[in-house]
TrEMBL record:
<protein>
    <recommendedName>
        <fullName>Peroxisomal membrane protein PMP34</fullName>
    </recommendedName>
</protein>
<dbReference type="GO" id="GO:0044610">
    <property type="term" value="F:FMN transmembrane transporter activity"/>
</dbReference>
<keyword id="KW-0472">Membrane</keyword>
<dbReference type="GO" id="GO:0051724">
    <property type="term" value="F:NAD transmembrane transporter activity"/>
</dbReference>
<dbReference type="GO" id="GO:0005347">
    <property type="term" value="F:ATP transmembrane transporter activity"/>
</dbReference>
<dbReference type="GO" id="GO:0080122">
    <property type="term" value="F:AMP transmembrane transporter activity"/>
</dbReference>
<dbReference type="GO" id="GO:0015230">
    <property type="term" value="F:FAD transmembrane transporter activity"/>
</dbReference>
<keyword id="KW-1133">Transmembrane helix</keyword>
<dbReference type="GO" id="GO:0015228">
    <property type="term" value="F:coenzyme A transmembrane transporter activity"/>
</dbReference>
<feature type="repeat" description="Solcar">
    <location>
        <begin position="36"/>
        <end position="119"/>
    </location>
</feature>
<dbReference type="InterPro" id="IPR052217">
    <property type="entry name" value="Mito/Peroxisomal_Carrier"/>
</dbReference>
<dbReference type="GO" id="GO:0015217">
    <property type="term" value="F:ADP transmembrane transporter activity"/>
</dbReference>
<feature type="transmembrane region" description="Helical">
    <location>
        <begin position="6"/>
        <end position="23"/>
    </location>
</feature>
<dbReference type="Pfam" id="PF00153">
    <property type="entry name" value="Mito_carr"/>
</dbReference>
<feature type="transmembrane region" description="Helical">
    <location>
        <begin position="184"/>
        <end position="206"/>
    </location>
</feature>
<feature type="transmembrane region" description="Helical">
    <location>
        <begin position="44"/>
        <end position="62"/>
    </location>
</feature>
<comment type="similarity">
    <text>Belongs to the mitochondrial carrier (TC 2.A.29) family.</text>
</comment>
Length: 214
């Protein structure tokens, strides 16, 4: 069971985080003229990601610490209360600065996804399989480009000193990409499945609302 330590809080946090991100992203797109571009998608992704980080950072701080043996929180609420009691507001939002820098990850992911999606749709080739493949490609690119920031973010959320990491980086720069393979295996498949479900849900909601897809 140790392999699934903190699974329930992770699922709760992912649900909240994805809702905030997707809602913010599409709300921003609604207030712009028709004809979205890759640059617009990148900017909307950055803004939506910033909103998401500021609202959900405490959830991910607790999630990170729940995965450590020394923190045996039974729920997110208990973890939030304990971190606040011991470290205050600063503890709940620890790692927020690199997290804000990391909004580039979903922003790049969405920019690549939407750009490839538009090309495939114009050619008439976009379906569930294409959504899966494009989602995987977009996440792989975004994760590889931003992995060093993710590594720093994880260390800060866990309350770990960054000095050993920076010391190792000076002698061996590839240290900043340690564990990238495992991260890609974890995130690429998740993102690919997420985009397939996302496309299906969008079509379902629009069909219920009787809105014609462009």
């Amino acid at each position: 069971m140790s392999l699934y330590r903190g699974l329930a809080p992770v699922l709760q946090s992912i649900s909240v985080s994805n809702f905030v991100y997707f809602y913010s992203f599409h709300t921003l797109r609604r207030f712009t003229p028709k004809g979205n571009s890759a640059i617009q998608d990148l900017m909307f992704g950055i803004l939506a990601g910033s909103i998401n980080v500021l609202m959900t950072s405490p959830l991910w701080v607790v999630n990170t610490r729940m995965k450590l043996e020394k923190n045996n929180y039974t729920s997110l609420v208990e973890g939030l209360g304990d971190v606040y009691k011991k470290e205050g507001v600063h503890g709940l939002w620890s790692g927020t600065v690199p997290s804000l820098l990391l909004v580039s990850n979903p922003a790049i992911q969405f920019m690549v996804y939407e750009a490839l999606k538009r090309k495939l749709m114009s050619a008439g080739y976009f379906d569930n399989y294409a959504a899966f493949l494009v989602g995987a490609i977009a996440k792989a690119i975004a994760t590889t480009l931003t992995y060093p920031l993710q590594l720093i973010q994880s260390r800060l959320r866990a309350g770990t000193n960054l000095k050993p990491l920076f010391r190792d980086m000076k002698s061996k720069p590839t240290t900043m990409f340690r564990g990238l393979e495992a991260k890609l295996l974890q995130t690429v498949m998740t993102a690919a499945l997420m985009f397939v479900i996302y496309e299906k849900l969008v079509r379902l909601v629009l069909s219920i609302m009787r809105v014609k897809m462009s």
